[in-house]
Amino acid sequence: MSNPYEPNLNKPGDQPQQPQQPAWGQPGQGQQGQYGPSYPAYGGQQWGSQSPYGAQQPTTTDGLSITAFVLSLTCCLSFIGLILGFVGLGRTKNNQRKGRWAAVSAIVIGGLGTLALIGVVAVAVFVGTSAIDPRDAEVGECGNILSEDRDTITMTSKDCDSKHDLEIVYVGTYDEIEDSQFLPSDPDDLTDAGISAGVCIDLMPSEDVATLDEADDELRYGIVTEDTSPNGDDAFFCYVERPGDAKLEGSLLG
């Protein structure tokens, strides 16, 4: 019988036992004592290591887009803001730069501002080319009243075959009014319908007055002078219109 308390001796023919592997974390033979191997951080990269492509630069705001937005708010430079807005749209694509909102706003506001500017210019050109000038007015010329106040009136030429506001019935110079018995002491009183009728009827040929009376006995007379403070050689003309918003049709003296 074997003695369980005796040391375990190798019997003849037994293979020598392999030395046991050291326990996890224990130093093996021939190794310096340590508490186990260290492992890299998650993902195989040490904390704080630099990217091989360098640090990413922060996104900056696109100054051109901001400039475009500011210009689009102005009355006369909105067209430039519109153009710069399209440029800024490309510069802020794919978040290359901040400020895309400014580029988009510049395009919208600049577009509307440009259309408004074109409209204003078109109206100004139309009025400038079609406005009736007392120096160039002619008897029988028809027109519309564009604006009117106590001191000034703006009229534009209109084809007499279509409905219109007025017709010019006399053209002369202010010295004729000065020689008239109906000259008011205050030139501003020429805008009074009664005084205008007296001046114009006195200066017009009698046959023209008769023609107008026969065409419409409710016509009202008006006077337009070249200057708000006319004198001597300044041009003026007389015109007739119907009361209220009634329109004239055809030429009365044409």
TrEMBL record:
Residue ranges of the DUF4190 domain?
A: 64-118
Question: Which Pfam family is an annotated match for this chain, by its short name?
Answer: DUF4190
InterPro entries, A to Z: DUF4190
What are the record keywords, sorted? Membrane, Transmembrane, Transmembrane helix
Q: Where is this region: Disordered?
A: 1-41
Where, by residue number, does the polypeptide cross the bilayer?
66-89, 101-127
> Know the name of this protein?
DUF4190 domain-containing protein
What domain of life does the native source organism fall in? Bacteria
User: Which residue intervals are annotated with compositional bias (Low complexity) in the record?
Assistant: 12-26
